[in-house]
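User: quick one - fold this with nicotinamide-adenine-dinucleotide bound?
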Amino acid sequence: MSTGGGARGETSGDLFEDAFARVRQAAECIGAHPDVLKVLHYPKETLAANVLLRCDDGSLAAYKAWRCRYSDVLGPTKGGVRFHPGSNLREVMALSLWMTFKCALVDIPFGGAKGAVCVDPRTLSDAERQRLAHAWVHAFVRMIGPDRDIPAPDVSTDARTMAWMADEYARMIGRPEPAVITGKPLALGGIPGREEATGRGGFMVLDAMVQRLGLAPEDTRVMIYGFGNVGSAMARFLDQAGYRIVGAGDSSGAVISQEGLGADELCQAKQKHGTVAALEREGVRQLRSASPLIGGDCDLLVLAALQNEIHAGNADQVRAKAVIELANGPITPEGDGILQRRGVHVVPDILANAGGVTVSYFEWLQNRERQAWTRQRVDETLKRIMRDAARRVDDTATELGVPLRQAAYAVALRRLEAAIMAAAPVTGNGDSPQASP
Ligand code: NAD
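Assistant: Sure. Structure tokens for the protein plus nicotinamide-adenine-dinucleotide:
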């Protein structure tokens, strides 16, 4: 298994090692103190559990589940919980590492975490999903807490799942504690704008970077790979800003139209039939799979499904000038190397999809302060944070002469390094080890 080659374009085949290779590369690039990599090379703590579910038919199902708190040097750990049949420990570790870098990059006082249950949620009734959410809290109650570790929604979990989890936590500790979980419904202390926050933040980053990417909204044709919560929100913002959506797809298929697809009609098809591929009208071509979108004729490709969508086998086919990663880890290191050599700009996940955790931070703050933020306050504060982060990444890319991904890791690592070194044990001579300049 490779530990350092991934960032140079070789894939180790292990999502966590590939993720960590990018950290090593950033450490080399900024000349980070060697102690920093020792602190960050493995999660702070991980718990694996066997989560039991009494099914509607009376049988007992057992699912593997995890919670990984990767690093809390910058604050309590924060990250979603996903229900997915492909989940595994290495994936959870990689996702929690990315959360650590994402929070550091946008400069919010959180560390990174992630959780998962290895389950196909489509096989569960609503009542079973609710019992599974309760069981997850039972299994991980010693990890989570408003000052320790704060879960949130992720793939196939939503506001309702978070309501069930917060309710179970309150029952277990004997009092309501809304700040233990974010992404809750408004009625339970949720925050306006959380559902579309990741798409909105991604759009704000794109807007701040159009010059570097060489895009003008009115001349930009976009394809959206992964039309779920994040992809559909991004589609609405792009449509409103005058971008032309020429393709959209999900796990059941895709639609293409060079004349343009409206965000409204795509959302309606998705809501009514469960897939955008159901959109039928003149000028729209339906595809049985979304994979042709990766090599589709467009200027900007939005990746909003799962990890490893662009890899060595298809990176050569990408025709877009720029790719924005709203999903976590959608491009393998090999795929990344190919895109870089071909001059395709990539706006990296830890910057592009950080809007979600940033608005989660606002939700946590309002719960702690027993206040309610307005929609306007959320949008304005998010805009300031996302634009500042995009500007720092852009400036660092210029300063170090590196692509945006490496610049984003460098910004985050500098922040983590400063915190790690500030508290580092003094040496036998009484000296404090120094962070990189
Ligand atoms: P979601 O489940 O609502 O949507 C995922 C979409 O991807 C669905 O439409 C699904 O059909 C599609 N998809 C899955 N496999 C596919 C495939 N092989 N080909 C094409 N489409 C496929 O999830 P989401 O909340 O929108 O999250 C999407 C991504 O964004 C994930 O990687 C998630 O980790 C990341 N993300 C989400 C948030 C958030 O706030 N929801 C925040 C940060 C990152």
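One thing worth noting: Residues 154-156, 198, 225-231, 249-251, 290, 304-306, 326-328, 353, 356 surround nicotinamide-adenine-dinucleotide (CB under 6 Å).
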